[in-house]
Fold each of these.
Amino acid sequence: MMIVDVEENDDVLVPPTNFSMVEDGIFRSGLPQPSNFGFLETLNLRSIIYLCPEAYPQENMDFVDAHDIKLFQFGIEGKTESSSTSIPSHTITGALKVLIDVRNHPVLIHCKRGKHRTGCLVGCFRKLQTWCLSSVFEEYQRFAGVKWRATDLRFIETFEVMCLRQCLYSIIYQYQGYGSNKRRLLYQEEGIQKPKIKSI
Amino acid sequence: MMIVDVEENDDVLVPPTNFSMVEDGIFRSGLPQPSNFGFLETLNLRSIIYLCPEAYPQENMDFVDAHDIKLFQFGIEGKTESSSTSIPSHTITGALKVLIDVRNHPVLIHCKRGKHRTGCLVGCFRKLQTWCLSSVFEEYQRFAGVKWRATDLRFIETFEVMCLRQCLYSIIYQYQGYGSNKRRLLYQEEGIQKPKIKSI
């Protein structure tokens, strides 16, 4: 039945394994294969956040070059449950800064299988969105399945979003002001700095 | 740790169980509880597709009334694997018509647990999007987990999207024309009917 479908329709789309939408303009998946490139084209990606330390595969590099997609690589070792070293949180912070910068959207986050490293980054992003922790874990586990790791959940739980949130508040403040300071917006000539959002 | 988080932040958001984004303006979940209403407000829903035959719970009805959300109910029995009767495909077709009508977006699809009925509707929607069947199944199983049902996969596989697709092509044709008929757009005064997309 499936083969008939494929034969009838040359445009059949094959999303990468573990593909999903996270938010408007944010997607997640495992490592895209050449068979997924047709699908990826439909996303009109502006950037990719790649979470493995290995060099980006040549076919994938050709794809991002051909479509003028920015590649942000944050090399995080693919650990096993028994590993004692944990994900460096400053790496996740760096990736989060790229992720929340709408100038990079639409953006695809991926590692190898789209379970652990991607799951940790999305989990930290959900904390930033003030999702309750049990919902963050539920989403993590939906993608990790039986491969879920207690170390990942612990990483997500203890990851400190407050600092990043304050940084965001400070940007919002510079843009809009808040409370009784809202008038500050009116005095741009007073030398209030334009917000600078830095990627990486 | 989580309780501390909740106490620190009154705005903690609790998405419904099995919540996820499907596409821009399309969400899926299990039955929302009152504790999820704060989160649902952030979605600015215009409509809800409810797939159970049971009357909508009063709290949920109050929520949709208060937020001027249109409720589309398509009563599908919650079956068990052993059940011999299958989902009526015309009911799914009806729900699909509401789902793809952007005037209803943002829309939330939900049944009770967000696994089987919701999974079947989303699966048929993916076929309409020309996703390959193995990717459709992967997504279905991510949400159904160990509760996945072979009958649901069979339903999705055999569901006929061609008729609905032709109906869409005919709407697109009326809007834009295609191929050598593109000029038809120029002659609206010739009595070419305006497309009428009917909900339900």
Amino acid sequence: RIMRPDDANIAGNVHGGTILKMIEEAGAIISTRHCNSQAGEPCVAALARVERTDFLSPMCIGEVANVSAEITYTSRHSVEVQVNVMSENILTGAKKLTNKATLWYVPLSLKNVNKVLEVPPIQYTRKEQEDEGKKRYEEQKLDRLETKQRNGDVIFPIINPELHTVGYSQSSLIHLVGPSDCTLLGFVHGGVTMKLMDEVAGIVAARHCKTNIVTASVDAINFHEKIKKGCVITISGRMTFTSNKSMEIEVFVDADPFVDEPRDRYRAVSAFFTYVSLSKEGKPLPVPQLLTETEDEKRRFEEGKGRYLQTKAKRQAQMQQAAQ
Amino acid sequence: RIMRPDDANIAGNVHGGTILKMIEEAGAIISTRHCNSQAGEPCVAALARVERTDFLSPMCIGEVANVSAEITYTSRHSVEVQVNVMSENILTGAKKLTNKATLWYVPLSLKNVNKVLEVPPIQYTRKEQEDEGKKRYEEQKLDRLETKQRNGDVIFPIINPELHTVGYSQSSLIHLVGPSDCTLLGFVHGGVTMKLMDEVAGIVAARHCKTNIVTASVDAINFHEKIKKGCVITISGRMTFTSNKSMEIEVFVDADPFVDEPRDRYRAVSAFFTYVSLSKEGKPLPVPQLLTETEDEKRRFEEGKGRYLQTKAKRQAQMQQAAQ
Amino acid sequence: RIMRPDDANIAGNVHGGTILKMIEEAGAIISTRHCNSQAGEPCVAALARVERTDFLSPMCIGEVANVSAEITYTSRHSVEVQVNVMSENILTGAKKLTNKATLWYVPLSLKNVNKVLEVPPIQYTRKEQEDEGKKRYEEQKLDRLETKQRNGDVIFPIINPELHTVGYSQSSLIHLVGPSDCTLLGFVHGGVTMKLMDEVAGIVAARHCKTNIVTASVDAINFHEKIKKGCVITISGRMTFTSNKSMEIEVFVDADPFVDEPRDRYRAVSAFFTYVSLSKEGKPLPVPQLLTETEDEKRRFEEGKGRYLQTKAKRQAQMQQAAQ
């Protein structure tokens, strides 16, 4: 579809969150269709996980986003979908790869939302495809288990914070979950959640560096808990790490099922977003260094540095592999 | 209501689809109100057909759209509504007629969506009004029957198409039908469908001529099949004909009720849109000629030429009549 | 959240209605949460009244709106909420108070929408807080009773009105209430209604003075009647009074439950909006004087003058108090 002014920031760059939302919608459609392709209980595919994804080139207002999705692996209860987004300037005809993403879905019964159904198997053209898919499946399963145990952290407001400290740029946003945010099952679309997370992360990044910023990448996101229609969700973000030209922001989503359910507020999702600051010509700018004050902030900075160096090393390894 | 940036293209011209959506909403309101004006089963009016409509002058961001609707004929089971759209520049006070449209609705029972209810008759001030209405009613009934038999065509992607061929500009878009797209009965508003059709037709036109384009007219559209909440709809468009200064695009809407219904994908609507290319001063520009390759493309081009010449002849006859 | 192009007028000023909608959403969330904080029947807080509110400084596209809400008083069946809106320019870090508003909510049972539940009492830090709250509660209760008896006026279209008369600028807008406009109970959010009212008032003001206009204040609004999903609402506005630099516009909302309910059209809300006209530099401009023609128009003009002088006197008293 054509990118509209509301999809973009003031500089005309489409929000990463808008692109994530389109990716998730395409993934939900193809996996729901696949899971209903055999006779059996009708179901809706729910997003369980999005793998780490990079935004390769910015998209602008007036461009057309071409989204294509393909099922690349099925386990007994889950579907792996690969989604590609191309941006197309319809006036010049120029096309660019904007994003490649891998998503995992599980089919939930329309009659009983707590029942996970079986996934019809797909046919592989080569045996290696199935083996590689199985390897990816096992890896993500491990990572999902790990993050499930991670402790729930809370962000408190800071009075009169110093410029460039964590407290200075931290932000939060509340949203009342309405019917247009939800699937047929009455749960929030994963893409809607990711769009709100990107919005908060973008506000944190802009507050910190006071320039035009764009989403560079999003780390793997695990959706452990569904969010029901009528909930209030609080999306909070704080900066955890800065390199010379990038900022890492941690974003939490907490759901508050305050009506009609005997349940406390709970952590639904958390993820790391990486942003870069761009000049008017679209070149990356240096970013102000994050000032850490507490022990926790220093620890999170070091952890962020670890993730940054690991990603950098992986990318160099890939480039060397490609060069061979 | 006031036209917003998201209602318009980059040049500031309001999308034809936004106007069609407003027209349909006004028509649905007036005909639903009329059909519920007598004691009896409550009902919702569903769009059955839109007559051919011309976009007489472009509307811009910041202008106010004034929509007025009137019931002009009732048969036993259908209502004819005439809708006029005026654009008003609230700063200068200037008003222009943007669009005149004729729509047909049928009342469906709220309790049983497959039951068409009876329409309370309207009073005519002159006997001729009723006779003319009856003539229009018979004509559209015939045309509806005809298009119902028309064969379902499918658009396949083309690899590496040549510039200005049919394959080069053809486009498609998928949309998951959400609650805000639907009426009280849980079916897609006709106006929502038309807006999406116009969006695809606009992308086809822009890809072909790479300039600012606007909707000039829409041929009669028949809504044979309802589309239910939760469906995925695929809207596909391909160019069928070019005259010196206009492009005709055929648009198909296919619905895929992939959840909760034992039914295959089906063709819900199809229609022809005509676009023109505008210079920065708003003057029509010549358009590149469509290159037809296959026999089918050549046949469709000739059929499009037929429609173009017929419309041109009709318009000249009307102008001569007006001049007498 | 970040203000988008669709939230603002052509001059880039965010619509007062967008701000009112955010205020109401925050109020609905905090009061619904409070009313469900004790074991008992689940409920949704419905807006009963908004106190008079001033727009202190305009907000622009790209700024972040910070909305904070606090419960300041509870009676047996109602909650008073104070909401503050700050606009923040995230590039410069500058913050300004945009709006302060006081809202009253009542908790309606999720199982039976006609049942008003009891509100858990809040703790006051000082006895005076409770007494002042009680005084505000009694005052608003009186005012609510008064407006309930006010007679329903209707706006008729005028043919060929003179420039600057009441008939020249009066406007109306219809809207079909969809699912995304409604709460869990299936009734329109008060904030959605206020946004539409501001849109109509803005069109009236722009038609009258043909310049860039912004909302300066909104008088107390009482929500006597709920509006159900599927209704058609007609929002009508007419100018009642002009001072040298401000315009007062009266806005009515009429609901037409034309489907599924044996009930006539009824007046759901009415309110007075005050607008000012701004130059390109953001300075208030003189406005053309309203030409009153009928006796009713002259009477309404005098009543508007009364409200204007009363507000002016109150503001001067407050400023003197602040100066002491």
